[in-house]
Amino acid sequence: MRRLRACLGAAAAVGLAAAGTTALVAGSASGATSALANRWYAAAPYLMPLDNDPPDPAAIMDATGLKAFQLAFVLAPNGGGCSPTWGGTAAVSSDTAVQSVVNTIRAKGGDVSVSIGGYGGTKLGQVCSDAAATAAAYQQVITKYGLHAIDFDLEEPEYENTAAIKNEIGAAKILQQNNPGLYVSVTTAGTADGTGWFGKQMLLEAKSQGFTPNNFSIMPFDGGFNGAASQTGALTNFNQILQSTFGWDQATAYAHEGFSGMNGRSDTGEFFTQTDFQTVLDYATSHNMDRFTFWSLNRDRQCTPADNGGRTSGTCSSVAQNSWDFAKYSVKFAGATPPSSTPTPTPTPTPPGTGCKPAWSSTAVYTAGNEVSYDNHNWKAKWWTQNETPVASDWGVWQDEGAC
Q: Is 73 helix (H, G, I), strand (E, B) or coil?
């Protein structure tokens, strides 16, 4: 699924993050506005502005008090090349659709960050020739939208590519130097131990290049997690990794640490409710962590008809909720008070399945629209596939159609 500021030393970076300093990106970038406090960029939830039934950001702002959005994802073109696109298909250079979303948000006093990478697709760090070329591609995005914040979402399969990660970290350092005041987060996979081998290698690459972002965030979901306790345990372990990697004390490590969760049902069937989010929020604020965000606003609404638990969706959470319940935790992290709302609805039981499709076969060839059953669920193929086990994922070939 999935997710920079002036070149400062560790101590200065801690002070900057803690104070929520505002800054302006140098230059006269198109659409540039005064920056929000850094705490808002740290709290910005992910929003896909072109896919997954994008919600109206103005409505979310009115309902929750949210001011910042993390727009996802900038990738390399599907046909190849070192130029930024939205989702691999829509060139940033000629974009008007995302710009319209940005304009809507800024007209209401908010702002956006842009996330580059994510799960799936080809990343610019994989195809650009070096760090300088990668940075030049990302600079186009910063200039186009007048950005004050950017997120490097470094995960599978890119973070298994040493050269690509070297390009991404090197690009982040260049952007940090060339755009004074730019807020940067680096997001990677989370495990029970904090992060895995590839995540640790990414941290070592950052250390070797002398690069310190505002934060390194982990995503403690899709890895055998079960509620908030497992997530806070992972955050504690990740803090120790940051200490040992960079030689920071505990407080400095927390001031450079972030959480990126997934609301509702995860790709692997884990569940994270509003109560879990409150617990992690309390942990993050009590430890003075730099970032608290989640994937995604497109999912921050109850499924219709209510399917609380039966599937993972890119457009709803699969848990009982009011629309934008999870966004309010981001608002709280930013230090604001969301408007009061009606109580969370009582969960509606998932109706029993009405019959299973023919069983999935590892040897059969399936094309878009073909339906199968697997693990007591029905699945529909999104495109041609063979020998890909049905599993719920926004980026995967199979769409979960519910229990049977």
A: strand
Instruction: Please state, as a whole number, how many other Cβ atoms lie within 10 Å of the Cβ of residue 184.
Output: 22
Dihedral of CA atoms 241, 244, 248, 251 in degrees, nearest 10, equals 40
Strands 257-262 vs 291-295: parallel, antiparallel or unpaired: parallel
Q: Which of 291, 321, 288, 289 is nearest to 306 (CA)?
A: 321
Helix (H) or strand (E) holding 193: none
Q: Which residues does 207 contact at the CB level (< 8 Å), separation at least 6?
A: 245, 246
When comparing pLDDT for 295 and 391, which is higher? 295
pLDDT of residue 348: 41
SS3 at position 156: coil
pTM over 0.90: no
Q: What is the mean pLDDT of residues 126-150?
A: 98
Specify whether the CB–CB gap between 89 and 317 falls below 8 A. Answer: no
Residue 155 annotated in active site? yes
**CB-CB contact of 52 with 394 (8 Å):** yes
Three-class HEC string of 169-230: HHHHHHHHHHCCCCEEEEEEECECCECCHHHHHHHHHHHHCCCCCCEEEEECCCCCCCCHHH
pLDDT in tens, 281-319: 999 999 999 999 999 999 999 998 766 667 899 999 999
Which of the following is catalytic: 155, 158, 205, 257?
A: 155
